[in-house]
Specification:
The complex is a heterodimer. Helices cover 71% and strands 0% of the residues of chain A. Chain A is an all-alpha fold. Chain A has a domain of 100 residues. Chain A starts with a helix and ends with a helix. By secondary structure, chain B is of the alpha+beta class. Chain B has 2 domains: 30 residues; 59 residues, no CATH class. A 3-stranded antiparallel sheet of chain B has the order 2-1-3. The longest helix of chain B is centred in the N-terminal third of the chain and has 20 residues. Chain B is globular and about 50 Å long. In chain B, 14% of the residues are buried. Classes of the chains: A mainly alpha, B alpha+beta. At the A-B interface, helix 9 of A face strand 2 and helix 2 of B.
Chain lengths: 410, 119
């Protein structure tokens, strides 16, 4: 999808699928019906103009399409016939003149991110059902054949139906746990876009845009949840640097070398405002801390003026929530900037013995950078080569290759 | 003495609904169940939904861990069963989490397929 009409339809996709899911009780049927309605819209709207209530129009047409489909399928079994009767008789939702209600967009997100679904399929299902990406687009994002992705999505939707995974926003007691899974899916989506782990492009702007759009939607729907706001702030503050993160050849530009004039100031201001609002709620959490760290970078007038001491402190705080080697590695980099490369290297060297982390190219790159600053060129080159052996994304690969060449050239 | 018979199958894929293959299989099942019914040995029976619609629940240190699919732990073996009726999966998962097996090993939550009462 690309034209303005396509974009308009995609913007309404989430709410339309949610409304149909509420009406039909079946995610697969809801998507099929909305898809049908979109096809009709693309045929008619160029002629008739876009209706004043485009979402209501889409839901109304999709509802009829859902009934049509069920009627066609009804000949196949009594079960479908029963669900068709429910649809036909439910006057509040499905009568031809009933005002369609764009219900429960958030329920759809919680459905797609349910812990009973495999973590990897949650992201794909969210892209399909919430963001309206086609199976082909999602397959391309995951670098798998379209047929493989189609099967995964069909299996996930079959499980939702057969195991009766509920379509609702969890109650207060469950919310913290369940919201975490939703925020995680959005974060993974953004990270994959921001630093593509596969493929030749380093940044996939479409995935970043989609993640921000979802984060905004979730934060709007749950205004009292500081972590939802924290995630939105984090994504805005990070994505504001997108234009400066790669050079004309598509190669990675380190934060310190970026042209800060190319950062999106409006986006940074919005991110800061959202973060401040979140912090005022007085319930800190990992996404707010990540956002605060991103804010330290995005608001520093120059690389030299970055408050690394504050960043190191924030990472120290973050480790209380995320006691992961990755957080520790990031703290090490901040410590190196605040107190000198030797102090950071001590932390990274300890981490480098971790067998799992030896497979993490970024750790080798970080070590190599510190070794280079300390003038230990030989060890630096070895660490860069270790990173290269792990086959990082193309843009990181060419950055590392350049560094090795520089070191070899003296 | 009561026995629970576990009907294993090799793959999730059954023949398509409406095909002669599936009709034949269903007739064979119906015949077997009818025979057990006539003999007075049948207590309850039902097919289970595809293994891919299973959810596994474990409780570790008081925290409920939910994963998609059946338990992949070879050391675990079936030690009993419980049939419950709930509004949706979330409710079933809550009940699964209070079963001691969820702490020691795992509890698989697998939908039972609604069918006409046997016999």
């Amino acid at each position: 999808m690309s034209g303005p009409l396509d974009q308009l339809i995609r913007r309404h996709w989430w709410a339309a699928v949610a409304a149909l899911c509420r009406l039909t009780g079946d995610l697969g049927a809801a998507e099929d019906a909305v898809q049908d309605a979109c096809v009709v819209a693309l045929e008619r709207w160029p002629v008739t103009g876009v209706p004043a209530n485009a979402l209501g129009w889409l839901i109304g047409v999709a509802r009829h399409k859902a009934v049509d489909r069920l009627r066609r399928e009804a000949i196949r079994g009594a079960k479908e016939a029963a669900s068709m009767r429910e649809l036909d008789l439910d006057g509040s939702g499905l009568g031809p003149d009933a005002a369609p209600e764009p219900a429960d967009p958030l329920s759809l997100v919680f459905l797609c991110c349910h812990p009973a679904l495999d973590a990897s399929v949650r992201v794909a299902l969210t892209l399909r059902s919430v963001c309206g990406l086609s199976t082909a687009e999602i397959a391309a994002a995951f670098l798998v054949p379209e047929e493989t992705m189609a099967k995964r999505l069909v299996r996930a939707k079959a499980k939702i139906r057969e195991a009766r995974i509920p379509f609702r926003v969890p109650g207060r007691a469950e919310l913290p746990e369940r919201l975490g899974a939703v925020l995680r899916v959005i974060y993974v989506l953004f990270t994959e876009g921001h630093m593509a782990s596969r493929g030749d492009a380093l940044v996939r702007g479409d995935l970043c845009d989609t993640a921000i759009w979802m984060a905004r939607g979730v934060a709007d729907l749950l205004p009292g949840e500081p972590e939802a706001m924290g995630l939105l702030a984090l994504l805005l503050l990070t994505d504001a640097r997108r234009a400066a993160r790669t050079d004309d050849l598509g190669e990675l530009v380190l934060l310190e070398d970026q042209d800060r004039g190319r950062w999106d100031r409006d986006m940074i201001a919005e991110g800061e405002a959202v973060l401040e609002a979140a912090l005022r709620l007085g319930r800190p959490g990992p996404y707010q801390l990540h956002a605060a760290i991103a804010a330290c970078h995005s608001t520093a007038p120059s690389a030299e003026a970055t408050d690394w001491r504050q960043i190191a402190l924030l990472y120290g705080e973050l480790i209380r929530y995320e006691p992961t080697p990755v957080a520790e590695a990031n703290r090490a980099v901040a410590v190196a900037m605040a107190e000198g490369p030797a102090a950071g290297l001590v932390i990274l060297d300890a981490l480098a013995h971790h067998p799992q982390l030896q497979r993490w190219a970024q750790l080798h790159i970080a070590r190599a950078e510190l070794l280079r600053r300390l003038g230990r060129d030989h060890e630096a080159a070895a660490a860069y080569r270790a990173a290269l052996d792990l086959e990082p994304a193309a843009a990181s690969r060419s950055f590392v290759t350049r560094r090795i060449r520089e070191l070899a050239g003296g | 003495m009561k026995y629970m018979l576990l009907l294993n199958r090799t793959a999730d894929a059954l023949p398509e609904p409406g095909t002669p293959e599936l009709d034949r299989i269903n007739q064979e099942y119906a015949a077997a169940v009818a025979a057990m019914g006539r003999a007075g040995v049948l207590i309850d029976c039902a097919p289970l939904a595809a293994g891919s619609s299973t959810t596994t629940v474990r409780v570790r240190d008081g925290e409920t861990i939910i994963t998609d699919g059946p338990s992949a732990e070879i050391k675990e073996q079936l030690g009993g069963y419980t049939i419950i009726e709930c509004a949706d999966l979330d409710e079933a998962l809550k009940w699964a989490a209070i079963i001691p097996a969820a702490r020691d090993a795992s509890v698989e939550v697998r939908p039972i397929v609604a069918t006409q009462a046997p016999v």
